[in-house]
Write a structure and sequence with these properties.
Elements lengths: L2 H7 L5 H9 L3 E3 L2 E2 L14 E3 L2 E2 L8 E6 L16 H4 L7 E2 L8 E7 L2 H8 L7 E8 L4 H9 L2 E2 L2 E2 L4 E7 L3 E8 L6 H8 L4 E9 L2 E2 L8 E3 L2 H12 L2
Parallel strand pairs: 7-13
Antiparallel strand pairs: 1-2, 1-3, 3-4, 5-7, 5-15, 6-7, 8-12, 8-13, 9-10, 11-12, 13-14
Helix pairs in contact: 1-2
């Protein structure tokens, strides 16, 4: 279907007006600005945006990737009146975060209005790995590294084996990369504390195949249909 026809069917504007909007650079297809006529779109597989808002059939499912700053609550609302992820991603659709990222941790958070997708991404059996970069106090020993990899007791339960490597190691501090598929409260922080190296700063840089990349702190974008499809396939393949 031609892009201008699709925009008209979605109620954005008449077909002639839609052509003007395209030429003005206000329309994106799969994250790329379209400024020429003749673009064809597949309504089932292409993400079409007008002024950075997705357009499509009523009740379309929304999938957002946010680079959450520290000091922001990963929740739809906060009883203490603190800033939430929905204060940053201010869309008319009712969105919910997929899982949690604690108040002082920054990085990748997914938001959606698709409850089935959220369930798939957070169910333990699917083992969706989340990658973190953690600055910790002190020089992490090889023994400490092995403990994180093999599983360590936190609040009476042993953590699942993690993928861990040292990025930088100094006497006063270390930078480690940790990948876990569990979702316990403040898990990475508690794991590091358990080996005697408290976290000084923590950032989640990937969830499954999604990587933060060049997305700046406080910025967000819509996931491409192919990204959503691949994430669902990761879950269904288990």
């Amino acid at each position: 279907m031609r892009l201008q026809k699709y925009l008209a069917q979605c109620g954005v504007a008449s077909r002639r007006k839609a052509e003007e909007l395209i030429l003005q650079g206000r329309v994106k297809v799969n994250g790329e600005v379209v400024v020429a006529m003749g673009c064809l779109v597949d309504p089932d597989n292409d993400l079409v945006e007008f002024d950075s808002r997705p357009v499509g059939i009523k009740d379309r499912k929304i999938y957002i990737m946010l680079n959450k700053p520290t000091g922001v609550i990963t929740s739809a609302k906060d009883e203490k009146g603190r800033k939430t992820v929905l204060d940053i991603v201010n869309l008319p659709e009712r969105l919910y975060p997929v899982g949690r990222l604690d108040f002082m941790t920054e990085g990748l958070v997914i938001l959606t209005n698709d409850g089935d997708f959220s369930y798939l991404m957070t169910h333990p059996k699917h083992k969706i790995y989340k990658k973190y970069l953690a600055y910790v106090k002190g020089s992490v020993s090889e023994a400490g590294l092995r403990a994180l990899k093999n599983g360590i007791e936190i609040e009476g339960r042993i953590t699942a084996p993690a993928r861990v490597e040292i990025i930088k190691r100094k006497k006063e501090s270390s930078l480690i990369q940790i990948e876990i598929h569990e979702g316990r409260n403040r898990q990475v922080r508690k794991m590091c504390e358990a080996i005697g190296h408290p976290v000084t700063s923590l950032k989640r840089v990937s969830v499954g195949l999604l990587e933060l990349g060049e997305l700046k702190k406080g910025q967000w974008r819509h996931l491409l249909p192919k990204e959503v499809k691949q994430l669902k396939e990761m879950c269904s393949s288990d």
